[in-house]
Amino acid sequence: MVKSCILVCCKLLKTKKVVDLARKQPGVKDAFMVHGRWDIAVQTEDLDLMKLAEIGMNIYKAEGVEIVETLVGWPEA
Question: Residue 77: inside a domain, yes or no?
Answer without folding.
Answer: no
